[in-house]
């Protein structure tokens, strides 16, 4: 039995079923990633992380737990990692991006639920993901109907805590969010036995901001006329950001960015001349969901920006770094986490449309693709405003709905290929 | 041109399309209602109201507006009518229950949206419902994703105000709801130019409670072994409760209840012996959605209780009637409107399951049908808990999903027929 298998067995996983996933992943990764030309050398670190995604990092987390540490999983970029770090715990993302987990979710959830939510519950109930076995606490939120109600079912099997995210962004909603963050701090103090001090919360803010700065640096290269890294690689890095140790991640990403800086000096592009620059907007693309990037980048397009949770929304805004009282720093967290993330769960959400228009200019995009994960009602409905605003701004835009299966791949290739072809 | 046509024309309605609806309704009403045997005589009032549903009441509302009055429409039983009444305005329901309006909604909303929401937007955008033309203010809420985002689109065409409904029922959520009610009061004072006084709010609480009491009285007869009124007629009365003048409605319903009291004394039942008693739970049945009641009551069943917004949730709990300061009475409204309505929009929502079990006993039901309007994610997901709890309580239960079309009628008849047949 391999070390990984021992680890997974100790976590109570369904080894036989999980092996099927382990067998499929290298092929998928090879097709999408290793087939690319001109990849930066320092993608090696990220390749390694994803190649053993259920081994290396889970083993670290278990080791941390053996020393008494706690691991906290979450499903949404509104949940502030800073609080987890400040309590001396490790934060990890839990969103699931593979069809492999969907049927398990469908055993307990309506079919008409988005694949991300179904996969998340399937990963837990089927015991086929180590992260879903390891976490000492699962932090859900009330962002959308699907998640809000799914957490009730997940809580039958996993230790859950729910943060109630405001649905608007009025002054009273910011105050409410501060309160929720304080409840969350208390919960984590209870979980870890540690006290969250000003010092620790301030350190955590700096650590998280440094991770964001590294992602911002990565994205800055994607604004160049000659883009030195592919959309696929950029997406992978954003996805890994949710799982990796934040300090190591920032360091490795900065090392990669040094390489990209060299490329930029030499005006080196991974894309052929005439490749169309695409901004993706919409629902998140959780690991290993690389489907759309792969289709776009093999159809004459380059994804240069993701106005998504797995993209700009995660990294663009920093938390104010001024050191203050706990109250003041919580206010700064509330301002950033509520004020600067323009999820379709808010009403109204005009700021998202404004963001797309701004990003389309900054990243000099030729076209916008508005992606919706099937049965995500909030992004689907908001598509009305996105597509209207793009028409008014004269930015070509198409709306795409997809899920985690490969069934629509050919159809998407045709539609996206036609869209890119008509871009000037 | 008939008086009604003049009224509708003045309201800017699409007369030609609306005439198609007017032509279809009498047939539908005849099939479901006039075909019944043993209807109480005093259903005549309610028959009249529905026979001219787009004429009589709209004409009253317009007359009220001509004298400077304001009409406020809402879509959810969490929105307190008392505030509207206290401001001297008229409150009217706006939920739409006909497939006629759905295609109009689908022009602006995702197909994967529940028919109630699609019909509501269609009724406005297609200009085929007088209530959707008359209202001076449309009050939406953040109960579910579909509505929350649909209101943004509706607000492009109609004057909207949004109440932010809490997603949980903790102490702080009750305080939040009090605040939202106070915002709403302010909005209505601005709209009407009237001040909401203690006296007026107290009167409004009494008026609304009296309407609820009349509905409670109606429902009390449905607990009897010999049920003197059909589920179809009871549903119609509940549906009309949202549109009619509250004082007149209570008076007419009490008059009907006097007749039912006579019937009860004589142990008169509208049902044949051996008819199975059914409790319906789930999503609301807006007028003229009579489909399920019709199928059940022509398949050997009697609907004796609706654990629905068009049912128990609307009428069962009263607002505390103690006269107090505005703050105190708003607290009473918050307690009732947040504390006593167990919509699936809340997390967790165990109280709803407890209600179903309690109601199943009180109404001596033989079986429970859990109804979901297609694409209503919150009730669909909560079905997991409903069906589990019914299994545990030994109450036969089936889950049904349907929409406003007639396409599934035959399939539903077969499933519901088989379910009723197997009840002992």
Automatic annotation (TrEMBL), chains A, B:
Cofactor(s) required for function per UniProt: [4Fe-4S] cluster
Supply the source organism's classification.
Answer: Bacteria, Bacillati, Bacillota, Clostridia, Peptostreptococcales
Entry annotated with the keyword Iron-sulfur? yes
| Family from the record | Belongs to the FldB/FldC dehydratase alpha/beta subunit family.
Alphabetical list of InterPro entries matching this protein: FldB/FldC_alpha/beta, YjiM-like
Q: What is this protein called?
A: Double-cubane-cluster-containing anaerobic reductase
The alphabetized UniProt keywords are: Iron, Iron-sulfur, Metal-binding
